[in-house]
Design a protein that fits this description.
Radius of gyration: 20 Å
Helix content: 25-40%
Number of helices: 13
Largest sheet: 5 strands, mixed
Pfam family, one: CRAL_TRIO
Strand content: 5-15%
Number of domains: 2
Region (Disordered): 280-308
Domain CRAL-TRIO: 93-255
Shape: globular
Oligomer: single chain
InterPro entries: CRAL-TRIO_dom, CRAL-TRIO_dom_sf, CRAL/TRIO_N_dom, CRAL/TRIO_N_dom_sf
Structural class: alpha/beta
CATH class of the largest domain: Alpha Beta
Order of helices and strands: HEHHHHEEHHEHHEHEHHHE
Protein name: Tocopherol (alpha) transfer protein
Length: 308
């Protein structure tokens, strides 16, 4: 019997993932992670509120050691990739959003995962770099990771490669691939449950061959390539009720999905400004805010404020 819960408690045998946030057992995990993080993350301000720490605990199924490593990697990755993380304000990627490049389906899949859609053909390489494209993904990730259900059940992504061309391929380089791989592996508190590629042309295969060695082993089996005749195989992974008509479903159309998500991102301007690298130490509004970690060097560099 757990010493944290009273005799006869319904929580006695329940794993932490299934317990409410205010249970004594969950609180003990949070307190221990905070204690260790204050030692590991010396210098600057880091958000060690209950809500912030729970994201990392849930991402690693309450394994304290793994959660701490993920927390440390997250802040290290953000400092080392300012070209992506320094400005998460919507204005920095407004053109991509207005092109309806990206959206998040309103409904979750049957496993509880959020479903993200990326329309590669809406990315015009001469107008936007691959780093800006990746920033769109990071913006969405920072917003949805605040959802408890998403922390528990993760995400799945659909990449529509219709109109993929050589101009896209030329923007993909090993440095960028490594940074993306770090997020997929051990630097962001989201569980990636599946990656689905549709409409991929033949000349995408060499690019994917370059990317694949950098991907973690646990992610590789979760990548599904559906080709241009994708409806049947895609619907084996997602219910038709949530998929847009363009993908063989009965849900909202892709344009509406993207428009609605763009509006949500724009309405999150203030939060995204806080989350930009120069303001990374300030609290994100979850249960308490940031805490000054004693001593040490290495405050995140200032990225400036959002332009409106």
């Amino acid at each position: 019997m757990s010493a944290e819960e009273p005799a006869g408690s319904a929580y006695t045998a329940a794993p932490p993932m299934e317990l409410p946030d205010d249970s004594n057992l969950v609180k003990s995990f949070i307190a221990e992670l905070r204690r260790r993080a204050e030692v590991e993350l010396e210098g600057g301000q880091v958000d060690l509120s209950d809500g912030a720490l729970l994201k990392f605990l849930r991402a690693r199924d309450f394994d304290g050691e793994l959660a701490l490593q993920l927390l440390v990697n997250y802040h290290k990755w953000r400092r080392e990739c300012p070209e992506i993380t320094a400005n998460l304000c919507p204005s920095s990627v407004l053109g991509l959003l207005q092109n309806q490049y990206h959206g998040v389906l309103d409904s979750r899949d049957t496993t509880g995962s959020r479903v993200l859609v990326y329309r590669i053909g809406k990315w015009i390489p001469k107008d936007f770099t691959a780093y800006e494209v990746f920033r769109v993904s990071l913006i969405t990730s920072e917003l949805i990771v605040r959802e408890v259900e998403t922390q528990r059940f993760g995400i799945k992504a659909i990449f529509d490669l219709q109109d993929w061309c050589f101009a896209h391929a030329f923007q993909i380089n090993p440095s960028l691939v490594k940074k993306i791989s770090a997020v997929l592996t051990d630097s962001f508190p989201l569980k990636v449950r599946g990656i689905h590629l549709i409409n991929e042309p033949k000349f995408f295969r060499p690019v994917f061959s370059m990317i694949r060695p950098f991907l973690p082993d646990k992610i590789k089996p979760r990548i599904h390539m559906h080709g241009s005749s994708f409806v049947h195989s895609l619907c084996q992974h997602f219910s038709r009720e949530i998929l847009p008509p363009e993908y063989g479903g009965n849900g909202q159309g892709l344009d509406e999905v993207c428009q609605r998500w763009t509006q949500f991102i724009l309405s999150s301007q203030a939060l995204l400004q806080q989350l930009s690298l120069g303001a990374a130490g300030r609290g994100d509004g979850e249960q308490g805010g940031s805490r000054q970690v004693p001593r040490g060097a290495g405050k995140p560099r200032d990225s400036g404020s959002c332009s409106r």
